[in-house]
Amino acid sequence: MVITDDMVLKRLEKLRSDKSPGGDNISPRLLKEISEVIVTPVRVIFQKSIDSGLVPEDWRTANVCPFYETGKRDSTANYRPISLTSQLSKLLETMIRDVMMQHLETHNLIRNSQHGFRGGHSWLTNLLLFLDTVSGSIRKTKNYWKKSNTDLQHVYSRIYVTWIICSVLNVWGSGL
Predict the structure, then answer these.
(1) pLDDT at residue 31, rounded to an integer
(2) Is 84 in contact with 26 (CB distance < 8 Å)?
(3) Does the predicted model carry a pTM greater than 0.70?
(4) Helix, strand or coil for residue 80?
(5) Using alpha carbons only, how large is the chain's radius of gyration in Å?
């Protein structure tokens, strides 16, 4: 994988300024504001990291902080832990993911039925595709469904009549 200055600059400019810094205490706001100055050194660090398979020590540490959700603030059950990791490590992870996804999609290595982690695909698009497939199958076998539905209605009407007869006999049999 070859990393270019354009790839790094595009990702640095997309950083959200309101996010917290990680274990290295470098804020995303700072990275975003000086992105044009640091793009080449960051690219060199990223490329060396990919080539060697090693990441800087600061990128492997995280600050774990409690995050309040709902309820009483004095109860620990109302908090969940969040890990604040380095913004640069997140940036490198995102770039690797993007290159991998592009490779998988270019070479048709991902099935159309896989939705959860692809851009423009979600659980909703998966559900819509499923419903379209099912409704298409129903349209193709319309006569079969009509016949099976009629058969089921016949079975249920017999069961219901049998239940009524048994219920009446039980009431009469009890001496009422």
Answers:
(1) 95
(2) no
(3) no
(4) strand
(5) 30
pLDDT tops 80 at residue 87: yes
Backbone angles phi, psi at 22, to 5 degrees: -95, -155
CA atoms within 13 A on the CB side of 141: 10
| Residue owning tokens 């995050």 | 67
- Write out the two tokens for 43: 């690219």
Q: Which of 80-89, 111-120, 124-133 has the highest mean pLDDT?
A: 80-89
Residues 60, 33: Cα–Cα separation, whole Å = 24
Helix crossing, 5-13 with 35-52: angle to 10°? 120
Task: Report helix, strand or coil for 136.
Answer: helix
- Within the chain, strands assigned E span 63-68, 79-84
Calpha distance 102→96 (Å, rounded): 10
Q: What is the β-pairing status of strands 79-84 and 63-68?
A: antiparallel
In this predicted model, what pLDDT tens digit does every residue of 123-164 receive, in sequence order? Answer: 788 888 888 888 777 777 665 555 555 554 554 555 555 555
Residue with tokens 């099935």: 111
Q: Using CB atoms within 10 A of its CB, is residue 17 exposed (0-12), middle (13-18) or buried (19+)?
A: exposed
Q: Which residues contact 101 (CB under 8 A, 6 or more apart)?
A: 118, 119
